[in-house]
Structure formats: C-alpha cells, structure tokens
C-alpha cells in the first residue's frame, strides 16, 4: 500500500494518501464483514486516489461525508448488536441494585456518616416495585455465608418470605460474577465466604422484606417480623443503625394499624406497640438520635389519634420536644397532627397556624399529594370554624379540585348561611367526611351557619320578626331564635337590638367600617403572620449557617489584619528612627513605652 501513494504533488498529497490508506483499511474491514473480497478494497483505493487532487478541494470536502455516513450506519448497526448482547435480565439487575447498597452501608460505618445510610434508604422507592420472594431469597443466600454466626439471622429473613429451606452461601450466577469482578477484580471466593456480615446489611434486607410484605398486604406476618426486627435493634445497640431503626418502627406501626381489630377499637394491635415505641423514644432522646426521635414522636401522635386518646397525645406533646433539625417530611407530619389536636381542643387559632405551616412544608412531589389534600381539608374546616371563608383559588388547583369538591359544597352552604343546604351536604358526603376524620368538626359548623344566616338577614332587613328568623333558619321554636340572636349580638357577629316584647330584631344603621375595630384586628393579624414568617425564616437560616453570613460583614478579618500590619510597620519605622537618633521619647509624647 505505501508504494501506491502519489509522490508528484508535494507533502499534502502524502498526508492525504496516508489518510486514504486508513479509510481503505476501514472499508476493507467492513467489506470483509459483508463477505466481499480484496478486489473491493482495491477499487476503494483507486477511488480515493482519483478523487483527491489538490486543485479540487470542494470535491474532497464533499466526498468524505458520504463515507462518514456509511461509517455511522455501520456503527449504529454495531451498537444495536452490542445492546442486544449486553441486555441484562431484570432479576439480575434487581439483585445487583440491592447489593450495590451494601457498599454504602460499609462506608456509613467506616466514616460514621449517616448520609450513606440515607442514600441506601432512598433507593428503596426504585426497587420496591421489582421485589419478589425469589429475588429477596437470592440476595440473602448469596450474601450470608453458611456458618453458625449468621445462619440464625438469615433463617429469620428467609422465614419471613416463606423460603426457609434454601441453603446459605450459594455462589452468585455468571452474570453477577462478571459484575462483581468488574467492580472488585482482586477478591477471593473463600475470603468472601468468611467475611462477617455487618448488622446494617441484614437490617436493610429486613426493611426490604417489610416493604414487600406491606405491598403484598401480608400485615400479620409483617407485624410479627417487624417485632423481631425491633428486638434485634434493641439488642445490637449500634449508633449506625439510627436511620434504619426509624424506618423499621415506621413499618411496624403501619402493619399494626392494618391488623384486625382495626382502630379505633381498644383491642387493636396499635395499643400493644405503645410501650415499644415509648421505649424507643426514651432511648433516642438519650442518644440524641434525631431520626428515630422525630419518627417515633409522629408515630405515637398518630397512634393516640387513631384511638381518640386526645389527652394522652396532648401530654406527649407537652412533655417532649420535637427535634429542630428533623427532616422536613417529619416536621410536616408533626405539625399536621398537632393542628388536629388543637382543633379538637377548640383552640382554632393555634390549629390554623400549625396546619398552615404543615401545608407549606408538605413536599411538592406527586407522591405527597395525599398528605397535601388531607392537610388542606382539615385547614378549610378550621377556617370555617374561625368564621373565615377559604380562598376560592384553592378549589381550582388540579391536584385538589376533585378531592375538595365535597368541601366546596360545604363552604358554599356556610358562606350563604343556608342551613338546609348545609345539612343536605353533610348527609350526602358523610362517608367522605368520616373517612377524612373531619365529620365531628364539621358538625360544629351548624352554629356558624346559623350566625352567618342571621348576619345576612341583618344586612338585608332593617327589622325582622323572630318568627321569620325561625322559619328561614329552620329552628325549633321562637325561643331558640331569640337565644341565638341574643348570643350573636353579644359576640359581635351583628350590630342589632332585640325587642322581646314585640318579638323582632332591629338592625342598626351601617356606619363607617373604619370606625370599628375590624380593620385594626385584620391589620394586627397580618402583622402577626408576617412576624411569625420572619421568625421561622431566621430560625431555618440560622440552622444552615446563613445568619452568620448576614450578621457579620464580609472580609472583616482581612481588614483587621491589614490594620494590624500597618500598625506593626509604623512601630518598626519609629523604632528605627529612635535608634538612628532622629526621634526621642519627648517627640513621641511619652507614649512609646506603653505602645
């Protein structure tokens, strides 16, 4: 091939000839794949030598793209073949994904950093849909060696998924071996068998089994297995298990909620797990375990509310302190349950503050839409109990429109003050309200509907008889109407007078609204909300270290260093002048000794 390169066109054709030789070699390889002989390669060589004269650069620039396109087509075909060859079995991929988290748990122990454990827990959401008993059994049998130290733990894990008879220490398949050799090529099989399995690995596998049992609705088996995991956590006493322990207690509580008899029955299993959760909370507080402490407090509040033990839930809140550095999801749950407790206790202002904060802190992801809907439903009922009307834009949100339709009808009835529509709405949607846990709070709105109706009538009529009020509000007697009107006047709902002898209510003339206390109270509420938002923002910023950057000017230390250097230079100059005799202590004013 080098002998056929042209040598009458200077140096440039030599370079082009070398490039053509490379192209010919690529074409020769591709032609050999297609079954062509050497003649095709020689023809390709002749074509390349003819098309490269130095005077026609345009032809040279237009010719190679066609060959590059051919090369691209050949590369695409080879990529498709490669993808077809490297296609991985979903089972093998799932096993590999589960085992990849073991390295994160090892690093969490070596560096004593919980972030690696949290990263392993976050991967469960992508693995849980692919979990099967065969996959879990394969991971367990390939992870645990066949020795007495780990056989008991592995047998409990296998028994939870119904695979008790499988032998331990099974070698992985060929696909997994290739993957493991690529990641760690210098490992011996005997050493792997004798390697001790850390407790974090079997707890992580236990959480995967909990997830599988919960998704497959095996609640009784999951509750029994979760009890074993909680006892194992208590016996190990390792700080590196904090993040994993919080997840174990979470699923333990969920299993007990779904085991018959269901709450609010006093025989429900959720009552029996309260000592376990309280002991876990006490241990977490002593160890300053923030993850377990926040998770268990939320679980206990949920536990008490499911059985309607409001007093015990209030005592738990008053005797414990929720950690400030807890995860945002746990803070949102805690604020929601706290708002529910305050709403039941008729402390609507505090409930409104907590529920508003819970809706703001709720995650914006699609998986948290249910929590946002539940918190918003309770928030609307509390606003109605406070005498306010929720914003109409909330009902138009795409994620809220369908779920909040019964509450939209309820708000309309309360806003108009129509007691008949209110009772009809409650009767038609009683099952929905009971499921949401707002039915008893909605029943309290009857007095608000009556007050709203009275206020609407006081604005529409300058004088109306108590009999007409009784008919319009569907009250039992005129005495009931008289009592309700008197209470509305005393509470400041309406500006009117009641004539008992003649049996009518006379409304006062509407004066200047700015002469009343209403604008001042509304302005005070807005200022208080702004101050609360400012305090919360400063608190969150202080936890992240932003406040320190705001309080102190930037580069202040550099300015101080510069001033100190200038002062030292002045001292050296003055000392040098004194030594040379240019200055004396009298010229310095006697301050040189103290300097």
TrEMBL record:
<dbReference type="Pfam" id="PF08375">
    <property type="entry name" value="Rpn3_C"/>
</dbReference>
<feature type="region of interest" description="Disordered">
    <location>
        <begin position="1"/>
        <end position="82"/>
    </location>
</feature>
<comment type="similarity">
    <text>Belongs to the proteasome subunit S3 family.</text>
</comment>
<dbReference type="InterPro" id="IPR036390">
    <property type="entry name" value="WH_DNA-bd_sf"/>
</dbReference>
<dbReference type="InterPro" id="IPR057985">
    <property type="entry name" value="TPR_PSMD3_N"/>
</dbReference>
<dbReference type="InterPro" id="IPR013586">
    <property type="entry name" value="PSMD3_C"/>
</dbReference>
<feature type="compositionally biased region" description="Low complexity">
    <location>
        <begin position="53"/>
        <end position="64"/>
    </location>
</feature>
<dbReference type="Pfam" id="PF25573">
    <property type="entry name" value="TPR_PSMD3_N"/>
</dbReference>
<protein>
    <recommendedName>
        <fullName>PCI domain-containing protein</fullName>
    </recommendedName>
</protein>
<feature type="compositionally biased region" description="Acidic residues">
    <location>
        <begin position="580"/>
        <end position="595"/>
    </location>
</feature>
<feature type="region of interest" description="Disordered">
    <location>
        <begin position="169"/>
        <end position="191"/>
    </location>
</feature>
<feature type="compositionally biased region" description="Acidic residues">
    <location>
        <begin position="71"/>
        <end position="82"/>
    </location>
</feature>
<feature type="domain" description="PCI">
    <location>
        <begin position="332"/>
        <end position="512"/>
    </location>
</feature>
<feature type="compositionally biased region" description="Basic and acidic residues">
    <location>
        <begin position="565"/>
        <end position="579"/>
    </location>
</feature>
<feature type="compositionally biased region" description="Basic and acidic residues">
    <location>
        <begin position="22"/>
        <end position="31"/>
    </location>
</feature>
<dbReference type="InterPro" id="IPR000717">
    <property type="entry name" value="PCI_dom"/>
</dbReference>
<feature type="compositionally biased region" description="Polar residues">
    <location>
        <begin position="1"/>
        <end position="11"/>
    </location>
</feature>
<dbReference type="GO" id="GO:0008541">
    <property type="term" value="C:proteasome regulatory particle, lid subcomplex"/>
</dbReference>
<dbReference type="InterPro" id="IPR050756">
    <property type="entry name" value="CSN3"/>
</dbReference>
<feature type="compositionally biased region" description="Basic and acidic residues">
    <location>
        <begin position="180"/>
        <end position="191"/>
    </location>
</feature>
<dbReference type="GO" id="GO:0006511">
    <property type="term" value="P:ubiquitin-dependent protein catabolic process"/>
</dbReference>
<keyword id="KW-0647">Proteasome</keyword>
<dbReference type="GO" id="GO:0030234">
    <property type="term" value="F:enzyme regulator activity"/>
</dbReference>
<feature type="region of interest" description="Disordered">
    <location>
        <begin position="565"/>
        <end position="595"/>
    </location>
</feature>
<dbReference type="GO" id="GO:0042176">
    <property type="term" value="P:regulation of protein catabolic process"/>
</dbReference>
<dbReference type="Pfam" id="PF01399">
    <property type="entry name" value="PCI"/>
</dbReference>
